[in-house]
Amino acid sequence: MYDFIVIGAGISGASFAYKASKYAKTLLVEAQDYDREIPVRTNIFAEHNKPFVDDLFWNDDSIFPRPFVQLNYKSEKHDGLLHSKEFGAPLGKISHTEILIKKLIDKFRDQGGTTQFSESIAKIERHSDHIEVINNKGESFSTKLLVLATGSRGFPLQKSLGFEIPDSSMGIYTNIYADESLLEENFNFQYMFHLNPKISQNGPFFFNVGKGRIATGYLGNKENPAELKSKLIRILKNYQKIQPFMKGIKWDESIPFVSGGISKHPISSFSKDRVIVLGEAAGLVTAFFYEGILCGLASADIAATLLKTLLADNSNFSRAELKKYDDEVARVLFTYFRNGNACEYLFYNESSSTKTLWNSYSNLLNTNKTVRKYVYEAHINQDLSKHNTDNDRFVGEKLFATIPVLSKMTLWPKFLKAMSF
Ligand SMILES: Cc1cc2nc3c(=O)[nH]c(=O)nc-3n(C[C@H](O)[C@H](O)[C@H](O)COP(=O)(O)OP(=O)(O)OC[C@H]3O[C@@H](n4cnc5c(N)ncnc54)[C@H](O)[C@@H]3O)c2cc1C
Description:
Blueprint: E1 2-7, H1 11-20, E2 26-30, E3 42-46, H2 55-58, E4 66-68, E5 70-74, E6 81-83, E7 92-96, H3 97-110, E8 114-117, E9 121-126, E10 131-135, E11 140-148, H4 155-160, E12 167-177, H5 180-186, E13 191-194, E14 205-209, E15 213-221, H6 225-238, H7 243-246, E16 257-264, E17 271-272, E18 275-277, H8 292-312, H9 319-347, H10 351-367, H11 369-380, H12 389-402, H13 405-419
Parallel strand pairs: 1-2, 1-11, 2-8, 5-13, 11-18
Antiparallel strand pairs: 3-7, 4-7, 5-6, 9-10, 10-11, 12-15, 12-16, 13-14, 14-15, 17-18
Helix pairs in contact: 1-3, 1-8, 8-9, 9-13, 12-13
The structure holds flavin-adenine dinucleotide (FAD).
């Protein structure tokens, strides 16, 4: 009998398993063939993720090969730039996330954890004093507590346990490799977040610039994988706004394109008797910016801390006890979530206002130092439960002041509502 079985070894499951294996007998099951390869991911790792990552990993340059010093909230009209040197330390780091996941899993094993890769959990049976999980080969394993960290790929399993399913749309990305010198020449930022409703009405087109590689794609659409891919190819080849960044970078259509679900909007409950849900499976991804790594790391850390006490007390992991996990996730993350919810409401709607608003926002970022300071502070804040929503309101007011008069007349009710989030 395991203390914990974790299904899913993305950032949520791997970081939880690493932390929990310090005190609990833990099994980590992953459907993908991680022994062959953990899929390459290049991500933005804001400084506010730091409290949830052990120094051992945070200070490892192979995981985080470059600092995140400049962002570009790009609109049709402006490069909306924020450079951290204006205020101090970097905005965070760029992660080669597959290396972080590998190192978390290596440590997990060193600490006595067991892994099963290329194994998909097909069925779960609840018993009064334990939970039984059954894989696709019909093998069964028992645990005192089950941790679902299945992202947006485990909805049937999640539903079978009576959990809600978060809202979900599709995203696509690809990894393009290029010489460091060429990347330095083409990109003066590490992160570009670009809104264009023709690309997606519900998410950004992005560049995440790593070391010797970039990840590029877009999020939040409803198209099927083949349509997503052909559109991304068209964008990379023809979209004028991004051609300067692609100059001299060799890529062709045969490189793998990865498409999949991206979830947001937390479900109403993250726990039931003997089961908890972490990260993206629980819809713990910020609306608007789609920060899922922060939420995966935070929910894993909160769960690992609470469960340590419960396990030591011989808990029966009832919903009443596990509700403390729900409450702590809400306390730590949901004040900050209000910013994403308000931005989502303002920007991801009818296409005409998105362009006007995003053009004004990127210009505001360039021209207003206080706005830049507030965006900077949100990135480096080490306690997001104290995120200052007054700062968000200030930015909202400044934005309203700068939009064209005609748009003011139609958009003021929207602003009023967004300010109340
Ligand atoms: C293109 C793109 C770019 C992004 N960039 C950023 C970024 O820069 N910064 C950021 O903060 N966030 C980013 N996000 C969001 C973030 O990457 C995700 O929200 C986060 O990685 C989710 O982690 P997770 O561990 O909860 O889920 P996942 O990473 O989806 O992991 C779930 C795992 O569970 C496994 N699984 C599912 N069902 C089963 C089963 N039945 N049996 C066994 N295994 C199972 C899956 O194979 C998978 O490996 C991005 C998302 C996308 C799509």
